[in-house]
Amino acid sequence: MGLFRRLTDILSANVNELLEQYEDPELLLKQAIREMEAAVGTARENAVKVVAEEKLLARQLSAEEAAVALWRERATTAVKRGDDEVARSALVRKREHEAVSTALAKQLEEAATLGQTLRRQIESLRLRTEDARRKLVLLTARQQAAVARQRLLVEFSAAPIGEHAFQKFERLCRKVERTEAETEALAELSGDLASHDFTAEQDAREEIEGELSVLKAQLNA
Known about the structure:
Layout: H1 2-12, H2 15-21, H3 25-80, H4 84-157, H5 163-220
Helix pairs in contact: 1-3, 3-4
């Protein structure tokens, strides 16, 4: 009875209560399932014995009832032919079988009642075991989810979520901006140099043209 009471308490408990009250609820529930399976096996063995006894008692009762009918018939036949002594003897035998039949009928009734009780117990244990297995699956899944969530919280508690990715992105942006600035500076410097060269070349051509004009004027004078 203690075992069944304990198993009933375990199976009626809420999964959250198991998580709060026991250090390893999954291990506890697995142990409970093993105990229940063992209890089912024991109950089934007892039920087999009781049902077998019930069948044997039913056969014996049937045989005794047949014997009662047989000796009643023999007593009737003896009375018909006027043989009271044989009739008395037959009636004695009939009463003996009737006594045995009465005892067997009582035993058979008790065996049948016990058999029905064991059948109900087996069915109840079977349903409880199935319920325990379902709770074990649920409990295992919830534990795994809790462990995974706990691990994530521990990992992200040291730094803001995604901080490393954001830092990398910021460095990349700064690098791009620097490259763009250097490119603009290079373009600006290149443009100034080209403009300076063009101006110097233009000035040189103008000076040459001036000298050429002066030279022509001197030759024509």
